Amino acid sequence: MSIRTNILLRVYLAFGLIVLFAVAVIVQMYRLQFVQGNKWKAMASKMSTRYENIEASRGNILSVDGSLLATSVPEYELHMDMFAGGVADDKAFYGKVDSLAMKLAELYPDKSETQYSRMLRDARKDSSRYQLIRRRVTFTELKKIRKFPIFRLGKYKGGLIVIQQNKRILPFQSLAARTIGYVNENVKNPVGLEGAYASYINGENGKRLMQRIAGGVYVPVNDDEDEVTAKDGADIISTINVNFQDLAQKTLKKQLDSLQADFGTVVLMEVATGEVRAIANYTRGKDGQYQEKFNYAIAYEAEPGSTFKLASYMAMLDDKKIDTGKLVDVMHGGPWEIRNPRNGKVALKIKDADDEGGVISARRAFEKSSNIGAAKLVTAAYGSNPSAFTDKLYAWHLNEKNGLQIPGEGRPLIKTPSSKYWNNLQSLAQIAYGYESKLSPLQMLTFYNSVANNGKMIAPIFVKEIRQMGNTVERFQAKVLNPQVCSPEALAKVKGLLEGVVEEGTGKTHIKNKLYSVAGKTGTAQIANGALGYGAKDAHQASFCGYFPADHPKYSMIVVISNPRVGLHLAAWVAGPVFRKIADRVYASDIEIKHPAPTHFVGNTTMPKVKQGNLAALKQVFGKLGVKPLYASTGAPGLDTSAGLPFEESKYKTGTVPSVTGMGLSDALYVLGNAGYKVSVKGSGVVTAQSVTGGSVIPKKSRITIELQ
After folding, report:
1. Measuring CA to CA, how many Å separate 115 from each of 82, 100, 118, 141?
2. Do 252 and 325 belong to one domain?
3. CB 3.0-4.6 Å disulfide test: which of 232, 298, 483, 566 passes with 57?
4. At what angle do helices 371-382 and 386-395 cross, to 10 degrees?
């Protein structure tokens, strides 16, 4: 055999083996696909499994007193394996299916017994291994269902497949709903506490092994146990007080209904801690009903109006540009015109809400909320150097966000001379009384709270603590934005200004009360209609921002109501009653507020009021009362307490008229009669005046008239 033949033989042999192997592969593929196809498909269906995520139970959100504001409750989806072990044969299934249908109809009457029976029978005919029975089943209902016919056979024989889900509920429904917030996959930005603290609240998802059955449906391998147990989320302890929140919402909504306003917001904050105790926001819908759709308190930037005058006056007082007694001409309400020096045209007209007063003090201008007064004082103080004024505002961080725990905070706007839209003729004057600037209600409240907090400016907080399984994970305290906004001297003066607004100014009628003192400022701002300006829309925003009790502040609060359509638009009339009603209830219910102690006249250091006159009678009365120097350490003028009894002998020089002022009638008649004078009496009570001054020399038997009140 030649070499060539040998080589060809080997090539043919190798090629033949390859062809034979290829034919064998094709034959085997044909057998698997067409001869044994159904067998392997069924086996694949049985063996196909996957893991699915099991949502963890979200943590609770609680109020400051432990009440549940938001929580997750288990909710179940029920399915049934129509060929489970206990009903594998037809006799067992059809013998009890009607009883099961009857029980389901009793628990869920939306379907009749016949409809449930037909649904179960049809599922049996279709060989369903995962028939949906019911969605949104509560735990209480599930306990009852487990005792129904067929299902009572157990999880393997009865065929009941339970899929647990979590449902988020708000036990107090609309209470602080916008602040609590929600989680929605379709909403990119987080909303409220639910969104801001989702990483804590969500917990860690578990895993459940699912098996695919006929029809491509996946069922849990273990319907009662997960392969990887979910880790529940942490609890959020908020600063909200449920009672105060309910009070704020009801009071605000009632006022909005009566005024038919566009929207309104209220924020109640604790002065020392910055903890927000209540926050309410309502928007008027097309149907006239009010709902909480937008968090105006933190996200709404607008010109604050006259509440901003606090910043203007504080800057001037701190820089010693003015004192509260400085005089300013408010021109009986104006208008005060600022003219362009180049052409003499009017660049700005400023008016006041009333025409009270001409030349008045800076204090009075603040109390009556004079726009002219604020504009004149600020332009006189900073007209040559406006940056000194705006730098002061920037030093107080009024141009910065507070850095809240809740997302969506509005961006404040404070113009400076270097700003693009600064107007050299009018910007400084308008900023002085609250225009050409933008602040959210909560940012304005933060500034007022710094005055109540003795100059310390802190950022408001909504969350106090995070707890996991009852253990504290993290605590939060208010961030200090400015340790001292102004000098103690300036602070004392602005406190006096704010108290004066309520005692003698625009807040006197609707906010002042006898039980406790309030300090604050009204603000009425005209709302601009875009590029058309202020004159195109007769709409106003009314607000009142302040704190109480003024002498030892515990709470600060702001009320803002936009575009009231009924009645007056003035802040005292619109926002004042809301502030007063909320403050009254809070003051009455908070036992930690330093309520003034009642005055006791017995056992007190205050001297009892006495009339001059008969010493023996005075000693007798004081002796019965047990008055001693220990109880009368602060002696009344002219009284001798050395003997243990305060008294004054009625002494006078013979031949002169005795002084009887301060005596009772009987003692006065006794003294004047013994001195030899006749007496005429007018009135009753204590002698307040006598016709002849004590010590005068007049003839005896002359008539002296005494007046008593």
Report:
1. 17, 12, 5, 20
2. yes
3. 232
4. 110
Is the same domain home to 233 and 250? no
Dihedral-angle region of residue 356 (phi above 0 means left; psi in -120 to 50 means alpha; beta otherwise): beta
For the chain, what is the total number of helices (H) and then of strands (E)? 21, 27
Q: Token pair for residue 127? A: 């060989």
Beta bridge mates, 482: 457
Asked if residue 219 and residue 250 are part of one domain, the reply reads no
Largest CA-CA distance found in the chain, in angstroms, rounded: 182
Using the 8-state DSSP alphabet, how is residue 306 labeled? G
Of 158-172, 407-421, 531-545, the least confident: 531-545
Indicate whether 504 and 569 sit together in one domain: yes
Rg (CA), the chain: 42
Could you tell me if residue 43 is inside a domain?
no
Q: Residue 673 sits in which domain range?
A: 615-708
Q: Check whether residue 156 and residue 213 sit in a common domain.
A: yes
Q: Same structural domain for residues 22 and 103?
A: no
> String of b and e for 291-327 (b: at least 16 CB within 10 Å)?
ebebbbbbbbbbbbbbbbbbbbbbbbbbbebbebebe
Q: Is 421 inside a domain boundary?
A: yes
| End residue of a domain, out of 238, 266, 285 | 238
CATH number, residue 687: 3.30.10.20
Helix (H, G, I), strand (E, B) or coil at 403: coil
What is the per-residue pLDDT across 424-473, written as a single tens digit (0 to 9) for each?
Answer: 999 999 999 999 999 999 999 999 999 999 999 999 999 999 998 888 88
pTM of the model: 0.71
DSSP H or E segment with residue 543: strand 540-548
What's the pLDDT tens digit per position in 113-162?
Answer: 999 999 999 998 988 888 899 999 998 999 999 999 999 888 778 888 88
Are 369 and 497 a contacting pair, CB within 8 Å? no
CB 590 within 8 Å of CB 552: no
Residue 598 inside a domain? The answer is no
